């Protein structure tokens, strides 16, 4: 058991020390704590895969390698800390405008109690689900944990995991989740169901915490608590986490990437590091599932489109540079995997592609499915669309000027990602009804926390509503 | 309750909060009442059954699979996938064109040998509960 805890704690520490290398934006410490969990898991999964590729027997030394990485990061932090301290006085004297802050205000105790109750219910549902399905849901055991068994048990034959003799197990899917599970087993020295369960729990918690802390820093605690209610109160999010599906890790990376771009918009001084971290998170989304590659394309296009309209093409190129830099390491990993190990993706089968593209009934069916699924999304008692609409109607819309470019980037990136999902359904060679029925809810889940981030950035925060009312009263007097 | 909030703000917040609580309660009740009769919720059972073959198979390579159920329905597909899940890193393919074949006769354990003979396969080992290791003499 202690080795399991160690295998989950080490990535978090690696993530924390890695993030500490970048100067932290004031007010984002809690956000960084949750960000560190996911980024650390991404780094450790990549390291494990590299060890497999370089020399298979070496992978048993994964713990040693990670401890060495931890020590190297600690040393690098010490070096930077000393360097920063020396230049602290210079920095203090230089012109450092304060960052735009979220509206100040204490969280409502009633709202806190509501969130606590929803979290308790969600945690109980998570545990009940785990106890009933300890191996995870269908995709978890038939894809992710199966692949982890190939990696862990396969020895020199680990590449057999990618044979297209078992194409039903989607051997073209990237390895973030299976790599993490197999890596935990290496730590433990044996297979254990607790590994997949622990990773599922960690990503679920990290995604929820990331949304809470991002909104708290950007829009105040009350808006953050309402956003958390909407996410943690979504049964599909909780059951998918407990099912050990890769949709929750990809949720995390998509949200992390977009939230970092919003924070970057408020903190131009850390523009390079925040955009590079956003790129890294987007790259890890591509290392999690094939849909992550679509998101990578969407976020780059969205950023370029936003800034080319506002600042011109040259400036937009400069804005995209750190994002692309951050993307590069995980994308190289994905590229290597796709070119040297994975069989071709079945979705883009060429036969009949033109026929499917030119069939108008497919477009209608996909559009209707998206509409119906959106209305009934997430397993809510009442459609969350209506609940969010009521909230928006009651509080009103207000986008801070400083957030407008980032909100535009996030909106375009999510719209392109969803349009990409729809396009994949249009061209799929699988039975369209079956393909949609078995995947659309989880595709929508992948962008759900990010849609909530966008929505609660656009809607006025409760504190802001109160402040605006006080201002109006003062004026009237 | 935060007295600074306007009535409209409170309506917006607490409508969402009340529905989240109600949804959470229903979801918890649904989780508790979920049936555990399908192959998917008995993975441990199938994992242990198919796992008995692990010692009898080579440490890598490809083996075939034969079941007493027609391939294609949800249950038989799940059982074949579970055989692969249990036996990885050996690759299990859903036909009998290999030297060694995994036999899954859980639903008709008594007629395992006749089903195997009908496909021209020789029994190698009976591992209990309808799980057999078969050999294809033609391969």
Key attributes of the depicted protein:
heterodimer, A: 477 residues, mainly alpha, 20 helices, B: 139 residues, alpha/beta, 2 domains, five-stranded mixed sheet, 5 strands, 41% helix, 17% strand
Structural description of this entry:
The complex is a heterodimer of chains A (477) and B (139). With 477 residues, chain A is mainly alpha-helical. Chain A is built from 20 helices and no strands. The N and C termini of chain A lie far apart (66 Å). By secondary structure, chain B is α/β, with parallel strands linked by helices. Chain B folds into two domains: 1-37; 39-135, no CATH class. Helices cover 41% and strands 17% of the residues of chain B. Chain B is built from four helices and five strands; from the N terminus they run ααβαββαββ. In chain B, strands 2-1-3-5-4 form a five-stranded mixed β-sheet. In chain B, helix 2 (43-51) crosses helix 3 (74-87). Classes of the chains: A mainly alpha (477), B alpha/beta (139).
Order of helices and strands of chain B: HHEHEEHEE
**SSE arrangement of chain A, N to C:** HHHHHHHHHHHHHHHHHHHH
Radius of gyration of chain B: 25 Å
Regions with little confidence, pLDDT below 50 for 5+ residues of chain A = none
> What is the helical fraction of chain A, as a range of percent?
over 70%
Strand content of chain A: under 5%
For the termini of chain B, the CA-CA separation is 76 Å
């Amino acid at each position: 058991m202690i080795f399991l805890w160690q295998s989950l704690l080490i990535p978090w520490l690696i993530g924390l020390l890695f993030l500490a290398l970048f100067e932290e934006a004031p007010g984002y410490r809690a956000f960084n704590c949750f960000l560190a969990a996911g980024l650390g898991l991404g780094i450790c999964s990549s390291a494990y895969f590299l060890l497999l590729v370089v020399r298979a027997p070496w992978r048993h030394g994964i713990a040693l390698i990670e401890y060495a990485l931890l020590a190297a990061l600690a040393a690098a932090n010490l070096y930077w800390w000393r360097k920063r301290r020396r230049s602290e006085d210079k920095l203090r004297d230089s012109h450092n405008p304060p960052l735009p802050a979220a509206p100040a205000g204490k969280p409502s105790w009633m709202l806190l109690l509501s969130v606590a109750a929803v979290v308790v219910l969600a945690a109980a549902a998570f545990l009940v689900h785990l106890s009933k399905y300890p191996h995870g849901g269908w995709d978890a055991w038939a894809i992710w944990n199966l692949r982890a068994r190939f990696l862990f048990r396969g020895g020199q034959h680990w590449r057999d995991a990618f044979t297209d003799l078992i194409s039903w197990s989607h051997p073209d899917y990237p390895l973030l989740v299976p790599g993490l599970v197999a890596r935990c087993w290496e730590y433990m020295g044996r297979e254990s169901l607790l590994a997949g369960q622990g990773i599922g729990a960690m990503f679920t918690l990290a995604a929820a915490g990331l949304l809470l802390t991002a909104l708290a820093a950007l829009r105040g605690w009350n808006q953050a608590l309402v956003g958390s209610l909407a996410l943690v109160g979504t049964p599909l999010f909780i059951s998918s986490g407990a099912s050990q599906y890769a949709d929750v890790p990809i949720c995390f990376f998509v949200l992390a990437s977009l939230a970092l771009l919003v924070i970057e918009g408020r903190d131009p001084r850390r523009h390079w590091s925040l955009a590079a971290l956003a790129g890294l998170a987007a790259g890890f989304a591509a290392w999690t599932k094939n849909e992550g590659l679509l998101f990578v394309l969407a976020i780059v296009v969205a950023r370029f489109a936003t800034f080319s309209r506002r600042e011109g093409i040259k400036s937009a190129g400069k804005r995209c540079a750190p994002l692309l830099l951050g993307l590069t390491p995980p994308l190289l990993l994905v590229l290597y995997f796709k070119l040297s190990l994975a069989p071709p993706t079945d979705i883009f089968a060429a036969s009949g592609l033109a026929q499917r593209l030119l069939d108008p009934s497919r477009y209608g069916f996909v559009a209707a499915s998206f509409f119906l699924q959106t209305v009934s999304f997430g397993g809510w008692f009442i459609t969350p669309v209506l609940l969010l609409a009521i909230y928006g109607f009651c509080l009103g819309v207000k986008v801070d000027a400083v957030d407008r470019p980032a909100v535009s980037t996030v909106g375009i990136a999510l719209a392109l990602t969803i349009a990409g999902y729809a396009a994949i359904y249009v061209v799929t060679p699988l039975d369209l009804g079956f393909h949609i029925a078995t995947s659309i809810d989880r595709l929508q889940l992948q962008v759900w926390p990010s849609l909530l981030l966008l929505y609660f950035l656009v809607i006025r925060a409760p504190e802001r509503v109160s402040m605006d009312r006080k201002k109006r009263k003062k004026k009237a007097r | 309750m935060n007295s600074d909030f306007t009535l409209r703000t409170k309506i917006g917040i607490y409508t969402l909060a009340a529905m989240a609580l109600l949804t959470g309660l229903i979801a918890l009740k649904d989780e508790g009442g979920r049936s555990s009769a399908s192959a998917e919720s008995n993975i441990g059972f199938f994992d242990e059954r198919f796992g008995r073959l692990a010692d009898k198979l080579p440490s890598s390579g490809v083996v075939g699979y034969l079941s007493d159920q027609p391939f294609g329905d949800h249950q038989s597909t799940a059982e074949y996938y579970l055989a692969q899940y249990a036996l990885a890193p050996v690759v299990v393919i859903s036909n009998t064109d290999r030297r060694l074949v995994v036999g899954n006769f859980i639903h008709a354990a008594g007629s395992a040998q006749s089903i195997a003979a009908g496909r021209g396969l020789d029994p190698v080992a009976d591992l209990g509960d309808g799980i057999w290791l078969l050999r294809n003499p033609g391969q």
